[in-house]
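Entry 14. Two folds queued back to back today. First construct below, sequence then structure tokens.
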Amino acid sequence: MKGSTGTPTHSASNTACELSATINGKPFTPRQLSAFSCLRPELTGKRSHKIWKIHAVGKVAHRRTVLGMFIDQSLEPGTYDLVRDERLSAIYHVTPRQFAQLYHSQDFEKGSVTLLECDVQTGHLRGTFHIDMPSAGLLIADGQFDVWCTQAAAAEASAE
């Protein structure tokens, strides 16, 4: 949902949500931004592990770009290694021409997420991130997010 200024907003309380970064020196500002508190998809068994899910779609230099972050709700404020810590992950998807390029945090050479605020009660999640993958010519710098996560209970109930 977008507010009157074009800023993505939290649908329940109309609180503004923001995510920004520079990708290879060019600004990324999402046109669509969603943030959810949901259960982590599992390959087997019942889903019971809660995560924060941030999904941002926008453009960088006229190219459709998607950033996704998945953060375990048990994490406290602090800095975490995005490449090695299994409690969080990220995706970067860009469509430069006729084919898509998709990178997962397991592919990144360096990366970190700093959680500044993560309140399970209010759904407020705020932090910064940095991703570096020189072998693919990818640098995501000055990343920051300030989102209010809605509960995704209705969607999860229908998936079981």
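Second construct, same run, same settings:
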Amino acid sequence: MKTFLLLLFTLPGYATSLRLQNETTCPLRALIQSADGSLLEEVLVMPQETFSWEETHKRLAASKSITPLSVIWLCSDGELYGVLEDVSTGALASTKQCVGKKRCSVPNKAAHE
């Protein structure tokens, strides 16, 4: 029994984590996708903030690899801001590193007046 417990506590953890850093002046949604394109989570990251995300693999099949990850950054209107691919677990996924237009449309104030 003691050997089993020792083995249980020495096995590697089954969690994937990322730090999502929004270095823009607008809130962005981060879509975190697994290697097969499955959506793992959608997270709102406020301007100039870093959000720590962790996924435990309880709901995933043990044989299914979810890494490398992709992070899709979306503007508040759903418009694509940028994409990061081949993101390793534990990495910092920054808006500065993504590929794409890297800007969000600013609503026209005159249209609301």
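Quick look at the second one. The chain has two helices and seven strands. The domain at 13-96 is CATH 2.60.40.2890 (Immunoglobulin-like).
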